[in-house]
Write a structure and sequence with these properties.
Length: 155
């Protein structure tokens, strides 16, 4: 399964954050791109940096196709894949005041917490091993010394 975790869309208040998050999210995406069983071939998770709209609930789409090469999706032209996608919307007012050195930890904590939706949907995903995915998520974060224990701003 190919995983893409990204933070592309921002607003004036959060315009400095995509650059801070780019490398850690790319690294995490690469390390989580493994075989977890099931029928999902791609998982896209968007960390929203604006609150123009609410978060997108998890949705699973079969036979999503690519028309042109797109590095964000990883789907080649003419190929059809099963895709899971959702977004995570942090508290923007809180996020913009977090010290720059804590932004990545905050984002990864929110993203990890959001992966519980995959546990809830695993039957629909043909036996996707969501628990192993979550274990690997935490292991990758800890391997790179991200703080997954402080729970900044949990609601």
């Amino acid at each position: 399964m190919e995983v893409q975790i990204y933070a592309n869309y921002c607003d004036f208040e959060t315009r400095h954050l995509p650059q801070i998050l780019l490398e850690p999210l790319e690294l995490l995406s690469k390390e989580l791109s493994n075989d977890y069983g099931g029928i999902m071939e791609h998982l896209w998770i968007e960390f929203q940096l604006n609150d123009d709209h609410g978060p997108f609930a998890f949705r699973f789409q079969k036979k999503v196709g690519g028309k042109t090469p797109n590095p964000l999706t990883g789907i080649a032209p003419g190929v059809f894949n099963n895709v899971g996608h959702y977004s995570v919307l942090p508290e923007i007012a809180e996020l913009v005041y977090i010290p720059k050195e804590s932004v990545v930890d905050y984002a990864l904590q929110k993203l990890y917490r959001s992966t519980s939706v995959l546990v809830d949907k695993k039957k629909r995903l043909g036996g996707f091993d969501a628990e192993s995915f979550r274990v690997d998520f935490l292991a990758s974060c800890k391997k790179h010394d991200y703080d997954m224990d402080s729970y900044i701003g949990w609601d």
